[in-house]
Amino acid sequence: MQWVYFGKLYKTKFQAGCLAKRLEQNGWIYGYDDPRLVEIFRSRKGRYGVRFIP
Question: The organism sits in which domain of life (predicted)?
């Protein structure tokens, strides 16, 4: 299983959470089937991102 990182980092966890929910609900928009696992992570610089396992 390999993580796929979504290409943008956000300033707040809320913004990343909105994207994570959208991926869970509408993964087909981005060309993926329903992801098995979606996770919000924090980068070393304090910004938030979304990664998932397709």
Answer: Bacteria
